[in-house]
Every structure is written in structure tokens, then in C-alpha cells.
Structure prediction request, 269 residues.
Amino acid sequence: MRVIIKKNYEELCLRTARHIAMRIRAFAPEAERPFVLGLPTGDSPLGVYRELIRLHRSGGLSFAHVVTFNMDEYAGLGEDHPQSYHAFMKNNFFRHIDIRAENTHILDGLAAGLDAECASFEQKILDSGGIRLFLGGVGEDGHIAFNEPFSSLNSRTRVKTLTMNTRNANARFFGGDVSRVPERALTVGIGTIMDAEEVIIIASGKNKAQALRLGIEGAVSHACPLSALQLHRRGILICDEEASGALNDETRQYFTDLEALEAAETALS
Prediction:
């Protein structure tokens, strides 16, 4: 696992967006050879999306041959519902770039058979050639997507019953009324995420500090889904200083020195 500590949220978003842009450009995607990107929703990626939009509008980044798969969707919400993740992605990212609608994939919360929808989503990922880079956020309890603590580290896309902690945390998107937050969601599994060639998890704020401490310094355990990133061959966690605040000084220093060394080598190349 690589840990990159930036000063604040703005800097971590710039670092993340530019890394994604670099990967897309280096891959040089074509219609028959698209770059497959996994994407999250929520507050965490908003700054990343803003920077990717800016890079696109500046003329240096095209999404014409990018295929996306989103992490999750609420069960029971249609794509036109203002709190659906379909609406979130359209409003905050997709309508601002040149991505083709048919290249975006989000689970259908109104599917007649939710289990079949999840199985179909997994098959679409396989048919696309697999996800090259999966971007995600992390919750205060270490959850990734809707894979809450004690989710199997080998889990696949499935229907999940949401805990009250998660519903309470998401009530702010539903006018503060937890009763309006769906009780179930469709989500990619931890195994689905870890199958990607590269995984980037972002975290900002002191409320994420304990999750990062367990995920980075603790044992790999289903009690902290973030800890699965320790096993990924190209797993990167990009956080701000507040989110890294519970890490041991030695841990922080090691990764800070590593980032400085890489920056120096890049400047010389």
C-alpha cells in the first residue's frame, strides 16, 4: 500500500485527479480499447470531479473512450430521483465531460430482480476487460462503497442491508430525515474493487483518522474493509493531514519521505 499525505482536501483532490488523468493519457484509449474507470459518489470525490472537469475543458483530457462503472446505488430509487447516484453522477460529472452515455454503468435500483442486476453488473465489468483504476472513498468506520464492517473481503456485487450508522450518516442528503434513506443498496464487493489493476482510496478530515489508522497500521480484517487495500499490488491511499492524524509518527514520516523522494526524481527526469 502506498500512502500519500497532502496538506488539505484541495491538494489531495488535485493529486488524485492528475494521477487519474495521467493514467488515461498514458493508456491512450480508443473506441475498441477503452480505459475502464471505477467511480464513487458522496462528498469525498467532488473535488476530484471538479478538477477532472477542468482538465477536460482545458482541452487536455478526453473521456470519449473511457468506460465507467459506479460503486453503488440505493435499492428502490430510480435514476431520476434527486438522491439517486445516477442523478449525482450526471449532475456532478458526466454532463460536464465528453463521455458517451452508453459507456457509463450504474446499478439499477429499480431492477425487477436485484440479484440478477448485481450478477449482470459483474459480467459487464468482465466483458469490458476489467477495471484499470478504481477510485473510492472511505467511511468513518472503514467501509468502502456500501461494504460495511464485517463484509467479506472476497465479496462481489450484491444487495446489502444498510446499518443505522450508515443511514444516519447519509440522512443529510435526505433533508436530515433518516426514515427517507433507503434500507438497502446495491454495491460492488470488496473483491470486485480489489480486482482492479489499480485502486485509489481518498480520505479527508479528522473524522476519518481512526479508520485510516486501522486500515493502514492494523491487521487485514473484515472488521475494517479499508484494510483490504494492504493486499493490493497497486493500492494507493491519498489523504489530507487531518485524516492522517492518528497514524504513528514513524508511519507518517516514512510515507512523507517517500513522496518527497518521488517528487525529486520526477523533477530530475
Remarks:
- The chain has one domain: 2-268.
